[in-house]
Write a structure and sequence with these properties.
The structure is a single chain. This protein is an alpha+beta fold and 350 residues long. It has one domain: Jelly Rolls (Sandwich). Helix content is 26%, strand content 18%. Strand 8 (242-246) and strand 9 form a beta hairpin. Helix 2 (60-72) crosses helix 5 (159-184) and helix 3 crosses helix 5. The structure holds N-oxalylglycine and nickel (II) ion. Nickel (II) ion is lined by residues 224, 226, 281.
């Protein structure tokens, strides 16, 4: 947790993760994770991650599997989504080509101090913050008018075209999944999707996790829930690293080259009145191989007020959360103040 600090000044970190990884450095103290805030058991427990075939979601049986996956695990591996393995491989390829560029070339798209878009490491907001053993490229993709094209890599030359095309496909899959999620709870199809609005936001985050000489001391990404409505993750084809917290166990999400990991974020936990779970997850590193991933986050228009769907509130299940606008902002503020954002929206028991 960030502690009770409201620091907006960003501190600089001298040597980058990529350089430390190449030189086999021991991680410096700012990267070392102290204690285990969440999840007491580091088990390789045999808790399977549900698999959902998107092409079967017109059937009641698969809809029921979807509902069950989201209300227990809060995530699933999506197959049958219509994107071929060679297509997914091309997307991974452009990401790898970008990350393989010399640092000064990547810095042309560098994240400005106090901003979150662009290429770089963690945004540092507090002296106590533990840094992630990763670097990333974050780009806003939708609505189209918010794109900052000066931060979109020109190298490899087809980067922008591939990102545009891929995120458009992912967006239509997400929209479809949101309709299915509503149907799985016997709600009108638009109960969630309509809350996202015409101007829903989409952010693409390319993550790169170089190997680390001491994976026991650091994390690629610290435990967190996503602030999104819904997140679609294209994992590395071979290298594992993502873990999700299920029943207090850290469970590794196996690599399935043609599947997407779909998880819900906080805003879908709110809209589903707590029935669907925004799952806690983290990324571990290893000594052998670097890992890449591409996360696509979809969020409601920050101008829209979102809240639990009416059909999910009744006497046996009272409204859990108050309605909010711009949850992203609340989430960021809470993070700086060391509060759990969803807790601040809970309606006290009457
Ligand atoms: C994230 C995230 C997981 C991964 O970017 O929010 O959880 O496997 N990424 O990179
Ligand atoms: Ni995440």
């Amino acid at each position: 947790m960030a502690g009770n600090l409201l620091v907006s000044e960003e501190k600089s970190v001298s040597k980058g993760v990529q350089q430390m990884s190449i030189e086999g450095d021991e991680p410096p103290s700012q990267y070392i994770v102290k204690g285990n805030t969440f999840g007491s058991k580091d088990s390789s427990a045999l808790i399977p991650i549900p698999v959902i075939d998107v092409s079967l979601l017109s059937s009641e049986a698969e809809l029921e599997n979807l509902r069950s996956a989201l209300s227990s695990a809060g995530c699933f591996q999506a197959i049958g989504h219509g994107m071929s393995s060679s297509y997914l491989e091309k997307i991974r390829e452009v990401a790898k080509q970008f990350f393989a560029l010399p640092e000064e070339e990547k810095q042309k798209y560098g994240r400005a101090v106090n901003e979150s878009e662009g290429y770089g490491n963690d945004r540092v907001v507090s002296d106590k913050q533990v840094l992630d053993w990763s670097y990333r490229l974050s780009l806003r993709v939708f609505p189209q008018k918010v794109r900052r094209l000066s931060l979109w890599p020109k190298n490899p030359t087809d980067f922008s075209e591939k990102l545009e095309e891929f995120s458009t496909k992912v967006k239509s899959m997400m929209d479809y999944l949101l309709r299915c999620m509503a149907r799985s709870l016997n709600l009108p199809e638009g109960s969630f999707l309509d809350q996202f609005g015409e101007e829903s936001m989409m952010l693409a985050r390319f993550n790169f996790y170089p190997r680390c000489s001491r994976p026991d001391l650091v994390l690629g990404v610290k435990p967190h829930t996503d602030r999104s409505g819904i997140t679609v993750l294209l994992q590395d084809k071979e290298v594992e690293g993502l873990q999700v917290l299920i029943d207090d166990n850290w469970v590794s999400v196996p690599t399935m080259p043609d599947a997407f990991v779909v998880n819900l974020g906080d805003q879908m936990q709110i809209m589903s009145n707590g029935i669907f779970k925004s799952i806690m997850h983290r990324v571990v590193t290893n000594t052998e191989k670097m890992r890449m991933s591409l996360a696509i986050f979809n969020e409601p228009d920050p101008g829209n007020e979102i809240g639990p769907a009416e059909g999910l509130i009744d006497e046996s299940r009272p409204r859990l959360y108050r309605s909010v606008k711009d949850y992203g902002h609340i989430n960021y503020k809470c993070y700086q103040e060391g509060k759990i954002p969803l807790e601040t929206l809970k309606i006290a028991d009457s």
